Amino acid sequence: MRLRPGEVPATGWRVETLSDVLQRLRNAAPDVAGRPLLVAIDGRGGAGKSTLVERLRGIVPASGVVHTDDIAWNQAVVDWADLMVDGVLAPVRRGEAVSYRPPKWDEKERPGAVEVPAGCRLLIVEGVGSGRRELAHLLDGVVWVETPLDVIEGRDRVRIADGETSQAMYELWMAEEVPFVAGQRTWERAFVVVDGTSSDEVVVRTPSREHE
Questions:
Q1: Do 196 and 145 contact (CB within 8 A), yes or no?
Q2: Sign of the alpha-carbon dihedral angle for 106, 54, 188, 8
Q3: Residue ranges of the chain with pLDDT lower than 70?
Q4: Interatomic CA distance for residues 55 and 120, integer angstroms
Q5: In whole angstroms, what is the distance from residue 158 CA to residue 183 CA?
Q6: Residue 65 lies in a domain
């Protein structure tokens, strides 16, 4: 399987239900009380993170999602950690509901807000860098979505062809994403690694650090 240089494939393939994966995450965070379970779904662009998020939301109706792209909107590709901490994660850890407008939303007059309602049982932070080191102390678990580079590149070509992004914007994004992900090596710190090509079953692997 072709991955980016430096990314070591996880080992120990097995099939689990998504409910079992979520229960294991809950069991590993016994101190969660009065607030949602905070789980990051991280992976490279095009890895299949959004698909996994929707499947999780299907089994936890009282769940919420915060997309890193919304926090980073008109801000920067990867320079948004403080906004995520101060605007979303720290208040959620305190058991507070969130209605947060990042500074660029006000500056550019974007309507709405990043919302985390009261009574949310599971908060998923989704996006490239959602499991970054700067957020680790506020997260209950990190899921890394691992997908072969050939598959990711194919998905990206479709996105460009469909007009979801341009070739120029894609190249600018990758110029920041590739070195950032290489430096973070989030797959080594993940609670579990999920195969981003599986659609019907959840195929998970034990992070390679557990076999060092």
A1: yes
A2: negative
A3: 10, 199-212
A4: 17
A5: 27
A6: yes
DSSP letter at 192 equals: E
Cα three-residue angle 63-16-41, rounded to 5 degrees: 40
Supply the DSSP symbol for 111.
-
Range of the domain at 83: 11-211
- Give the end-to-end CA distance of the chain in Å, rounded to a whole number: 20
Confirm whether 73 is domain-assigned: yes
Q: What is the pLDDT of residues 181-211, one digit of tens each?
A: 999 999 999 999 998 887 655 666 655 444 3
How many structural domains comprise the chain?
1
pTM assigned to the model: 0.90
* Residue 168 falls inside a structural domain: yes
Query: In the chain, what are the helix, strand and coil shares in percent, each to the nearest 5?
Result: 40, 20, 40
SS3 201: coil
Instruction: Give domain status of residue 90, yes or no.
Output: yes
Element (H, E) at 37: strand 37-43
CATH number of the CATH domain containing 167: 3.40.50.300
Q: Is 203 within 8 Å of 195 (Cβ atoms)? A: yes
Tokens of 143: 């899921």
Matching residue, tokens 């590709």: 77
